[in-house]
Amino acid sequence: MQVFITGASGWIGSALTRDLVGQGHEVTGLARSDASAERIRSAGARPVRGDVADHALIVEQARRADATAHLAFTLDFDAFDETIDNEVALLAALADALADSGKAFFAASGTPTNPTGVATEDDALDPDGPAGARSRTAAAVLALADRGIRSGLVRMPRTVHGAGDRNGLIASLVQLDRQLGVAAFVGDGANRWPAVHVEDAARLFRLALESAPPRSVLHAVAEEGVPMRAVAESVSRQTGLPAQAVDPATLGVFGALLGGDQPASSARTRALLGWEPTGPTLLEDLDAGYYTTSAD
Fold first, then answer.
1. Are 74 and 41 in contact (CB under 8 A)?
2. Average pLDDT for residues 124-131, to the nearest whole number?
3. Mapping DSSP to helix (H, G, I), strand (E, B) and coil, where does residue 103 land?
4. What is the pLDDT of residues 39-79, one digit of tens each?
5. By CB neighbour count within 10 A (0-12 exposed, 13-18 middle, 19+ buried), where does 216 fall?
6. Could you tell me which residues come within 8 angstroms of residue 86 by beta carbon, excluding any fewer than 6 positions away?
């Protein structure tokens, strides 16, 4: 299978590229820079220079491929709406170009919250949540199935962890902890984040590209919910910072993320594709020092 990946040099994209190449697939990855192109090339894939604003280039590569994985996203809260507008316009162009082709198109998204319990694949993204505007992208991806494209979503949990993670939420949390002088949690710390190891997330994405049915909504969740106090206590053990409750109002955008209870299930995803996570847990990666020694 020929696969085109946007975000192929990123955290999840790099793992997906390695997984696909290891399974014998031919991969082309979108690269914004020479450094990104070299990372893609070193993983055994072919880089093509451009970015997500290059709609004509992306359409051309998607037409050539049997399957497309869309992982590129610029997390800039100052230009968040513009980024979403660009994605929706790109998806409209892809809908016209790939109509009735049966080609696969799967995009990364985020697990939703469910105020009454554990979020499942049936729950929709909250348009009023911290990144709620991405619900527009999610709807546009699923609508591609109405045009004869095997489209779907691979929803990632709050943390996709592993050795080498430098820019994810856990890495950002540890950096914030160092600035605050405490390993922070909110309330009693019983609130939970879902989690998955990056290699497990990549393997699920590859299974989706290979065989998931149209309109699939998949959850790349290995751990339904890791208590944030346990995360803080692990950071405390590694850094010597005291584990301590903080006022979420002092944390800006991070306050809602750190204080929210956001467990998510992947039971239906596992039953559909036979996916079973095998990687280390979040606390195992934290206790290994991947997120604390790298910041020194």
1. no
2. 72
3. coil
4. 999 999 999 999 999 999 999 999 999 999 999 976 555 66
5. buried
6. 52, 53
